[in-house]
Amino acid sequence: MKSLLLTTFKSLRHRNFRLFFLGQLVSLTGTWVQNIAQSWLVYRLTDSPLLLGLTGFVGQIPVFLFGLFGGVVADHYNRHRIILITQTLSMVQAFLLAALVLSGQVQIWEIFSLAFFLGSVSAFDLPARQSFFIEMVGKEDLPNAIALNSSAVNGARLMGPVIAGLLVGLAGEGVCFFINGLSFLAVIGGLFSMKISSSRQGAMTISIFEYLKEGILYGVKTPVIKRTLLLLSLLSLVGLPYSVLMPVFSKTILKGGPGTFGFLLGGAGLGALLGTLTLARIGSKDFEKTIFRVAIGTGISFIMFSFSKIILISFFILVATGFCMMSQLAATNTLLQTVVPDRLRGRLMSFYGFVLLGIAPFGSLLEGFFADKFGAPLTVGMSGALIIGGAFLYFRRAVLPPALKPALVPPPETP
Fold first, then answer.
1. Where are the domains of the chain?
2. How far apart (Å, rounded) are the C-alpha atoms in residues 325 and 355?
3. pTM, rounded to two decimals
4. Distance from C-alpha of 70 to C-alpha of 215, rounded to nearest angstrom
5. Rounded distance, CA 309 to CA 312, Å?
6. What is the CB neighbour count within 10 angstroms for residue 43?
7. Which of 17, 200, 279, 319 has the smallest count of CB within 10 Å of its CB?
8. Check whether domain 2-193+204-408 has CATH 3.40.50.10420, yes or no
9. DSSP SS3 for 410
10. What is the pLDDT of residues 142-185, one digit of tens each?
11. Which comes out higher in pLDDT, residue 364 or 404?
């Protein structure tokens, strides 16, 4: 048992990562509380699946617009300082949203504006945060650190919806937003307590667009990166936005309320936590096969969920959905970070964020539109079928040796 724990949590031996991990666990729980409360608030105010989808679109489109530039910033400037700034701005956003809702005068356009602001902050936060892991733990423990960070995300995803479901019913959405603001103090305090050497400062030697072009060409010319990001883009377009329809399933299909909403997303969070902890424990010698298998599982669980009319059955299906979907994201992240050189890490992780979050707003809009026209169950079922089809296309092209080898990385350009 002791050796199992040491293997699963080995990257926590690094002090900086321990501080980051614990702070993230608290802060991300608050973020999930806010996400759930915001979705419920929009649906309560508008009773519109389309506006639910539009909320997701507005909050995520900044990653599409600015995310690639966020990667250039992460490769050039001090990543620790960038994360401190973005986390502080995210805290300010939560307190502003809380003040508006608690005043009783909140308007839908104000929710959209603050969602856009937070998305803009995230466009610079995500590539800096993802590429910061190697500075905290080194290359040897990098896969474990990524998996453990994903487990923190999903532990928060498990606890956050349950807390939000209770708080929305007892105290209202405004209190949820205020609690999220307070939760950022944990990660900000952890960042201030770290011992980080200053790096990546000084004038750029080439234009920001040349930096961006260098990263794009590397991704396009590396087959394993290209096909993995293509499959991730499909998941982002038709898979990840399923959560914007959860209020519809909770209220209309399953005849529940805020507690049902939190319970269902808590099931997805439980599965996601189990998936990432499993990946942290066993690792993987062939990430592409892992990605294929869990993508198939995601598609099957979507189709099953679309037919369910019973809350408990829906809960267990979402446990499987969360397990498969988050295993795919963690395996994708680890695969990409394993093959990329450090000088391009921020830019490649901005592509990961661009695909993961930049395409998702269009998916949110599409899911909301099709759910409005054809119903949420049919929309989710068709999404599952598309994911299965994409997984088989991916597997046909995925020819990896048993272990990732440096040969996957194109040789450096000759001067």
1. 2-193+204-408
2. 15
3. 0.75
4. 12
5. 9
6. 21
7. 200
8. no
9. coil
10. 888 888 888 888 778 778 878 888 898 888 999 999 999 999 99
11. 364
Q: What is the pLDDT of residue 313?
A: 95
Contacts 24+ apart (CB under 8 A), 247-255: 247/39, 247/40, 247/43, 247/52, 248/43, 248/49, 248/52, 248/371, 248/376, 249/314, 249/376, 251/43, 252/376, 253/309, 253/376, 253/377, 254/309, 254/310, 254/311, 254/314
Least confident of 74-88, 323-337, 345-359: 345-359
Task: Report the pLDDT value the prediction gives residue 176, as an integer from 0 to 100.
Answer: 95
Distance CA 218, CA 250 (A): 44
The structure tokens 């479901």 sit at 165
- With beta carbons less than 8 A apart as the criterion, state whether 52 and 372 touch: no
User: Collapsing DSSP states into helix, strand and coil, what is residue 54?
Assistant: helix
CA distance to 95, 247, 257, 285, per residue, from 404 (Å): 45, 41, 47, 7
For tokens 């929309």, what's the residue?
379
Composition of the chain by helix, strand, coil, percent to 5: 85, 0, 15
Helix intervals (H) in 103-141: 108-137
Rounded (10°) CA dihedral 241, 242, 244, 249 = 170
